[in-house]
Amino acid sequence: xxxxxxxxxxxxxxxxxxxxxxxxxxxxxxxxxxxxxxxxxxxxxxxxxxxxxxxxxxxxxxxxxxxxxxxxxxxxxxxxxxxxxxxxxxxxxxxxxxxxxxxxxxxxxxxxxxxxxxxxxxxxxxxxxxxxxxxxxxxxxxxxxxxxxxxxxxxxxxxxxxxxxxxxxxxxxxxxxxxxxxxxxxxxxxxxxxxxxxxxxxxxxxxxxxxxxxxxxxxxxxxxxxxxxxxxxxxxxxxxxxxxxxxxxxxxxxxxxxxxxxxxxxxxxxxxxxxxxxxxxxxxxxxxxxxxxxxxxxxxxxxxxxxxxxxxxxxxxxxxxxxxxxxxxxxxxxxxxxxxxxxxxxxxxxxxxxxxxxxxxxxxxxxxxxxxxxxxxx
Length: 378
What we know:
This protein is of the alpha/beta class. The protein folds into 2 domains: 43-230, Alanine racemase (TIM Barrel, Alpha-Beta Barrel), CATH 3.20.20.10; 246-376, Lyase, Ornithine Decarboxylase, Chain A, domain 1 (Beta Barrel), CATH 2.40.37.10. It contains 10 helices and 20 strands. The strands form 4 sheets. Strands 1, 12, 15, 16, 17, 18, 19 and 20 form an 8-stranded mixed beta sheet that branches. Strands 3, 4, 5, 6, 7, 8, 9 and 10 form an 8-stranded parallel beta sheet that branches. Helix 5 (107-112) links the parallel strand 5 (95-98) and strand 6. It is elongated. It starts with 22 loop residues before the first strand and ends with a strand. The relative contact order is 0.15. GO terms for molecular function: alanine racemase activity; pyridoxal phosphate binding. Catalyzes the interconversion of L-alanine and D-alanine. May also act on other amino acids. One of its GO terms (biological process) is D-alanine biosynthetic process. The active site is at residues 53, 266. Pathway: Amino-acid biosynthesis; D-alanine biosynthesis; D-alanine from L-alanine: step 1/1.
């Protein structure tokens, strides 16, 4: 099935062939490729890369990279050397940056896999230069995050020491790009321009997913979206501009009816106020369902779609199970062996995260290994 086929034809049947499966994660690679094209178009004349760290935000590095390569992406960002080696195994001729930089002692593996570190200190520049033959590197400046990066005050020293390497990119990272009016955005851009002036002939990059939409358009020469590619909303102040990529379903393992006053789950956090039809699904926090989605009488939290009807989580999320109140769902959809939706068109990443008191990035990157995975549009 081609990646350009209509989205309607990519709607999968969630029923797996293996009856032992209790959770299915469907990754729509056509949507992923389309999201990259959307971000590339918004980047104007800048190149559009892709951040594929954390196993492509939990959705699978190899299939995600293949879809992105087929869409036209040629520059990738990962977190560490091990991720970089895995990415290199997928793409022999892609440009792959390692955001960790040069961890002490890791330089030989970076060189062997033809990876480009993002150097965040003067010491890293020196260590990387010592590998010889003016190796390629990104120069990473700290403009306000105070996490990684060379301080702007050391930009002149960085430029001097960088004469012994071959910089291919000058970069920084926003603190609050998802907030269009955050005053720090303008300050960071100004600081970055100051540092970049010392590397005038080197391509520059500052924009993550959300920064692509900032009014200042800090696209420079390369944008590096991540979260938006995988269906996360980079513009929380507006409608999501990208398509959902992950669809998560779980199987109902048991159903029953309980009487008023009956408790559900560990520590009896929830008790029935009426006769209630309940269903237990085969996923839990071991699969990445946040404990924060736990519901008690005072705080409803997580929800699932059962036959198109929203059904709340009840009681504590446990390691392997979540219990739903399916009293309002169609009976034929709330039977043992049927499937419910946890992520998809009806429940987006941001909503699932908000209900659990977390962020969409965590929802995606914690999706567990026990889910059977289907890749569509490959």
